[in-house]
Amino acid sequence: MTEKRIDGKAFAARLRERIGERAAEFAAKAGRKPGLAVVLVGEDPASHVYVRNKHKATVEAGMESFEHRLPAETSQDALLDLVEQLNLDDKVDGILVQLPLPDHLDEQSVIAAIAPDKDVDGFHVVNAGRLATGGEGFVPCTPYGCIMLLKDRLGDLSGKDAVVIGRSNIVGKPMAQLLLNENATVTIAHSRTKDLPEVVRRADIVVAAVGRAEMVKGDWIKPGAVVIDVGINRIERGEGEKARLVGDVDYAGAEENASAITPVPGGVGPMTIAVLLRNTLVAAHRREG
Ligand code: GUN
């Protein structure tokens, strides 16, 4: 019997290995490695960890990593200048500005300044529009990773009842769009949804992306449903003890009913970086024509 636990870490490792092979083929043909530029502004500790992990994975996949660490007090103009410089740099195929930005910076206008064809995060309105209208763009990494895991378990998603809990631009909305593109019947639930447990009980696929520790309870899950938990919530413990990471779903409870479920950590998280590398490789190929 297939294990209920979806091993995103192992899936992502295999994907990264394949991307590494393709990156080497690209480098042999193009005479340069695919390049990813990551911009980090300020001192947010979680962002520093993410950026370090992205750098390591990029280098391991045989790609060039260009890191730009800027002080928290960086001005909007200085940040926009850097983005423009990266847009024009031929060695840079993908640009990622790590979010969140410090409060005085306007995230939307920074994202809008990234050339859509280097927007490997898929956050630019042009790429959001392409996703919504069926064009070839870049899809945000986390939801794309979720779709890969779902298709690996379920094959065809056509006609499945899917509930996405959360409506962020980064996860919830693109996730719903991707499920719709796979011909699922999609409900987007959020903080104002009436009777969330009942909505979730109808679903064959549950994607939780709300950022609230273990809010989705085990008895909300329909027997046989597939559960994808995007949440990463830190639960602080006593003095001197390491914080515990939990998802948006009560794993132990949900596992009893689900046919498959992603753990936290080791589920969706590792997929995000793997898809970022995939998008960078795709960008490199498109730019080289
Ligand atoms: N912050 C948290 N997740 C992400 C992501 O996927 N991309 C960027 N740019 N910032 C993030």
From TrEMBL:
Classification of source organism: Bacteria, Pseudomonadati, Pseudomonadota, Alphaproteobacteria, Sphingomonadales
Family membership noted in the UniProt record: Belongs to the tetrahydrofolate dehydrogenase/cyclohydrolase family.
Domain Tetrahydrofolate dehydrogenase/cyclohydrolase catalytic: 6-121
Pfam families per the UniProt record, alphabetical: THF_DHG_CYH, THF_DHG_CYH_C
Residues holding NADP(+): G166, R167, S168, I232
Role noted for this protein: Catalyzes the oxidation of 5,10-methylenetetrahydrofolate to 5,10-methenyltetrahydrofolate and then the hydrolysis of 5,10-methenyltetrahydrofolate to 10-formyltetrahydrofolate.
Keyword line: Amino-acid biosynthesis, Histidine biosynthesis, Hydrolase, Methionine biosynthesis, Multifunctional enzyme, NADP, One-carbon metabolism, Oxidoreductase, Purine biosynthesis
Endpoints of the signal sequence: none
Protein known as: Bifunctional protein FolD
HAMAP family, A to Z: THF_DHG_CYH
Pathway participation: One-carbon metabolism; tetrahydrofolate interconversion
Segments forming domain Tetrahydrofolate dehydrogenase/cyclohydrolase NAD(P)-binding: 140-287
Coiled coil: none
Organism in which the protein naturally occurs: Blastomonas marina
